[in-house]
Amino acid sequence: MLEGPLIDIGLPAALFLIMIGMGLTLTPKDFREVLIAPRATFYGLLAQVLLLPVFAFGLALLLGLGPAMAVGLVIIAACPGGTTSNIFAYLGGGDVALSVILTVLASLCSIVSLPLFTSWAMQYFNDTAVAFEMPVLRTIIALLVVVVVPLLIGMSVRKWAPRAAALGERAVGVFGLVVLVLVIVAIMMQLGDRIITLASQGSLAAIALNVVGLALGMVGGRIAGLSQREAFTVAIELGIKNGTVGLMITLSILHDSEMSVPSAVYGVMMFLFGFLMIVLARKLGLTRQASGSSA
Questions:
Q1: Which of 32, 95, 199, 279 has its CA 20 to 30 A from that of 42?
Q2: Structural domain includes residue 25
Q3: 62 within domain boundaries
Q4: What number of other Cβ atoms are within 10 A of residue 271's Cβ?
Q5: Structural domain range at position 97
Q6: Would you tell me the crossing angle of helices 96-124 and 38-46 to the nearest 10 degrees?
Q7: Total structural domains in the chain?
Q8: pTM for the structure as a whole
Q9: CATH number at residue 50
């Protein structure tokens, strides 16, 4: 069991600040994307909140993961995208406004969907290694505190002090990344010799989940009638997760270091897939389309 100030205080505080950072980038006008691109918004939200976690169940069974690792995979799949996904959407020539609104809406939906999927996974994969129940109500309250409240704080600062918002956006992003790195190092130290075996399992699961997420966005999005640019944006949202949320659930609430491995591994590997997606976007000409539309 991994405990201490870094997990009990630092991790929730880091998530709180990351969500403030997301709020600092938002204005009420951003929410008009729901009306401008309802099909893309609906499909992206459906894939993020429902489809990807369901696919994670199938992957866990297909890969024969142990109970803790299986639950951990479902947890990271059910996590929303983070502010990093908005950056990758921008670099790849995606629809940044769509990326932002999907990140916000998925974060709000995850307040309820993430605890429910986690509870379902723990019951489904339950054995002596995972012999406890998910505190659903406590988790919902915790997510409300670290998602909605800081989001509103950030939006308020953006409205009343835009200069401070511009400076704070960079600072909170750096802080969140530092805490994430420290937590991953602490997990590695806690697991000791088991880290190699678990990391190899976690890497395969993380790769498979990322590929499924990107396919749901790029292929599923096109089948659903999205433009290539919108499909790319949804793929980025599904591929670039807010790993800090997964670590907070597995470590600060469930106190299970093995369960946190998928979130930790995914939080590192998603950057590789993100850069590969940017390369793909450039080959598809999405960056040229984006610059042309903004000209």
A1: 279
A2: yes
A3: yes
A4: 12
A5: 5-289
A6: 30
A7: 1
A8: 0.82
A9: 1.20.1530.20
